[in-house]
Amino acid sequence: MVSNHLLLEEPIRMSSILEPSKPNFFPALTKIVGTLGPKSRSVETISGCLEAGMSVARFDFSWGDAEFHQETLENLKVAIKKTKKLCAVMLDTVGPELQVVNKSEHPISLKEDSLVILTPDQDKEATADLLPVNYSGLSKAVKTGDTIFIGQYLFTGNEKTSVWLEVTEVKGEDVVCLIKNSATLGGPLYTLHVSQIRIELPTLTDEDKEVISTWGVRNNIDFLSLSCTRHAEDIRHAREFLSTLGDLNQTQIFAKIENVEGLANFDEILQEADGIILSRGNLGIDLPPEKVFLYQKEAVHKCNMAGKPAVITRVVDSMTDNLRPTRAEATDVANAVLDGSDAILLGAETLRGLYPVETISIVGKICAEAEKVYNQDLYFKRTVRAAIKVKASVIICFTSSGRAARLIAKYRPTMPVISVVIPRLKTNQLRWTFTGAFEARQSLIVRGLFPILADPRHAAESTNATNESVLKMALDHGKASGVIKPHDRVVVCQKVGDASVVKILEPEE
């Protein structure tokens, strides 16, 4: 049963719609994950993306080698220092992805109503009559009448670069298909998707493990996006693997739900994962189109109830080539916010799109507008209720693990939550290190949370003057950001012993 929590707080005044959006240090509570790639890897462009509202940078290893992504990441580090904007790093695995291999890289034109053979023999040249695939079990997995979808940018829906096939015959290891639409495939690799079948490949492949244990470890990744998560066991296996890689035992694992099998096991996956990414492009192939919205609403609602981030993909595809989204896309972004999404993930729009900075900016503005009419009454608890009642401009939460701040954010306050992460000292018997950086960056995907790192000399549960200096730092940050103005009310949530204390402050000039 899908909860109806989309009702507006109050009727919309038409005059308010025409008012220009006011600039804000926090452009939106909803976070934006941007995929960095060929069109978004220079220091200048990444700086623009950070300024526009990107808080998590996604590195998609479905394409590009580790050296390419490392150069991009080094540029990200420079951009972070330049803009003074904190940004987390997400590694997206390839997973059990089926691909058509075109070693010649020449464009291949497929004609409607013609036949094409899919073969596991990768030594053969790709032509309009024969397409080599990287999976020897395809002929055992499909049957006559099954639908296969192929494209370089698989789920854009562009009929000129994507092709629908219908299986007409299985001959040994080869699969004979009828081409349903004319299309031209360009480039060395095209993704292949077969609707609603089980692919007998591991979710975390050997190639994925190699990338994680080298590139991931070197860069202390904050998030692992586990592509094509199908069972809770996939998450447990990935977590066990990360636990062997030093600091990566702190890395959060987001289950990327891409097919019906993942949806069927959603509840169990949600229990094990740190967050969920709904890969709507893939789901749009695996599900009837009229069912996608229903699964989205139910999945996001379950994430909200569990207090775990829900991330939605594929919202403004048209902005890959255009400066403005379509009306349907703008509404789709707003509805994702009204459904309760924590973050919007931009893929092709920023990876190879012509307007990555503008896309992030526009998506942020749409999110901010939707947040103004979100029904908060269904989600508030004590801290949030106090903040709403006194019309606070911000909530400040002291935390070490980040959990307290995430619990507040779960109830969707109308104002930003400044999460003051207090570092803790730990040792492995050989050296002392401070925790806190991971916890701060991992807040960057949670709706409404904006982390800052406190001085490690200040204890998280202290009641002495040191805590007052941490609070002053948070207030000064809020004032400098423009989110706290003279005589604004501020709600402070602080743990003292086993109790949580909520204070209401009214800072002076």
Overall description:
This protein is of the alpha/beta class and 509 residues long. It folds into three domains: 26-96 and 201-372, Phosphoenolpyruvate-binding domains (TIM Barrel), CATH 3.20.20; 99-194, PK beta-barrel domain-like (M1 Pyruvate Kinase, Domain 3, Beta Barrel), CATH 2.40.33; 379-505, Pyruvate Kinase, Chain: A, domain 1. The protein has 17 helices and 24 strands. It has an eight-stranded parallel beta barrel with strand order 1-2-3-13-14-15-16-17, surrounded by seven helices. Strands 4-12-8-9-10-6-7 form a seven-stranded mixed β-sheet, covered by helices on one side. Helix 2 runs parallel beside helix 13. The longest helix has 18 residues, at 66-83. Residues 1-10 and 460-465 have low confidence and may be disordered.
Give the key terms.
single chain, 509 residues, alpha/beta, TIM Barrel, M1 Pyruvate Kinase, Domain 3, Pyruvate Kinase, Chain: A, domain 1, 3 domains, eight-stranded parallel beta barrel, seven-stranded mixed beta sheet, 17 helices, 24 strands, 33% helix, 24% strand, disordered N terminus
Could you tell me the strand content as a percent range? 15-25%
Provide the CATH superfamily of the largest domain: Phosphoenolpyruvate-binding domains
Report the end-to-end length measured between terminal Cα atoms.
50 Å
Count of DSSP H/I helices: 17
**General form:** elongated
Provide the spatial order of strands within the biggest beta sheet.
Answer: 1-2-3-13-14-15-16-17
Low-confidence sequence ranges: 1-10, 460-465
> What's the CATH C level of the largest domain?
Alpha Beta
CATH names the topology of the largest domain as: TIM Barrel
Q: Which structural class do you get from the secondary structure elements? A: alpha/beta
Rg for CA atoms: 24 Å
Describe the main β-sheet briefly. 8 strands, parallel, barrel
Tally of DSSP β-strands:
24
Quote the average pLDDT: 86
